[in-house]
Design goal:
mainly alpha; 2 strands; two-stranded antiparallel ribbon; globular
Length: 344
């Protein structure tokens, strides 16, 4: 019975991953097409937040997902974690859209492969976590791969590169603290997604109105021959796909450990890069592709090094209980140190 349950769980996770890869790849390509004709990355982010706010509510009712402990958030916890998460969700999304607007999707996602570097640094600063030597060594091919891809990128843009780096840092923080909120409060992952989307939409609608709304009305930077109906369709599709991508991503984050999520995210990166190169046909050199491959290899090596480190740590925290009154002979009992929160 246990084996069947494990097989069902593994199948469920595999199917979610496949959907995640397909949806994310399509979402990135459509986002690039929209921004080529409609250069307003903040508006694209607001459409996505609006989609999360509109679609998640009915989904929660259909699936009968109760509020749970969400209503019991303390005011202090709300301001320390929930508000910053909503703020980070908006900013990370905006910078991510700026990156795919300024540079090819394949290059933007190669830069985003540097997420383990941010994770290691942020985990050290925020959690005081030290890594093993293999983990630190795994960062070398990531840095080298991103550097090679950057130097050889035909359509390189400095703003696009820095936007991708900032977005990657933001997404890394989101992954760490979203998992913490899910663990601390017991709130359902889809309800957390809905709440963050609503908060971000509420906070940044005035900002969007100031920076984008009047320019859109005046058709500033929009090509005269642009098909506004098709742009509207693309915006709608992008918002829907982004919502689906968030639902699947939060579902995976809820089902698996942060390490497994990191491996799935690295594989998704490969799918997005490959799909964008095939669909958008942006020119690349063999050296550029080699840099992308090296960065992805570094990410996979990092995940393996983290797995080995966690396995070793788990073995060290399982110790035999010894009966000293019986000459120091083990009585066969064991105990494990409980970790309140795991992160990548």
């Amino acid at each position: 019975m246990t084996d069947r349950r494990q097989i069902r769980e593994a199948t469920r996770i595999f199917i979610l991953c496949v959907f995640w890869y397909l949806i994310s790849s399509s979402n990135n390509v459509i986002g690039k097409l929209v921004l080529n004709e409609f250069p307003y990355p903040m508006t694209l982010t607001m459409v996505q937040l609006l989609s999360i706010s509109l679609y998640s509510g009915p989904l929660l009712k259909i699936w009968k997902i109760r509020p749970g402990l969400q209503s019991s958030f303390s005011k202090d916890y709300y301001w320390k974690l929930i508000i910053p998460l909503a703020f980070g969700k908006f900013l990370s999304s905006v910078f991510s859209h700026i990156s795919i607007w300024k540079v090819p999707v394949s290059f933007a996602h190669t830069v985003k492969a540097s997420m383990p570097l941010f994770t290691v640094v942020l985990s050290r600063i925020l959690m005081g976590e030290k890594q093993t030597l293999p983990v630190y060594l795994s960062l070398i091919p990531i840095i080298m791969g991103v550097a090679v891809a950057t130097v050889t990128e035909i359509s390189f843009d400095l703003v696009g590169m820095w936007s991708a780096l900032i977005a990657t840092c933001g997404f890394s923080l989101q992954n760490i603290f979203s998992k913490k909120v899910l663990h601390d409060t017991g709130v359902h992952h889809l309800r957390l997604l809905h709440m963050l989307g609503q908060l971000a939409l509420l906070m940044f609608t005035p900002v969007w109105a100031i920076f984008d709304l009047w320019n859109i009305i005046q058709h500033v930077n929009i090509k005269p021959d642009a098909n506004m109906f098709m742009i509207f369709i693309y915006l709608f599709a992008d918002g829907l796909l982004n919502w689906l991508q968030n639902v699947v991503a939060f579902s995976l984050l809820h089902l698996v450990t942060p390490l497994t999520y990191a491996v799935a995210n690295a594989s998704k990166r490969i799918a997005v890069i490959s799909f964008s190169l095939f669909m958008l046909r942006n020119p690349v050199t063999s050296t550029n592709v080699a840099g992308m491959a090296l960065a992805i290899f570094g990410v996979l090596y990092y995940n393996k090094a983290k797995y080995d480190a966690n396995l070793k740590k788990k073995k060290l925290t399982v110790l035999p209980l010894v009966d000293h009154s019986n000459g120091g002979v083990s009585i066969g009992h064991k105990f494990a140190l409980n970790r309140s929160f795991q992160h990548i």
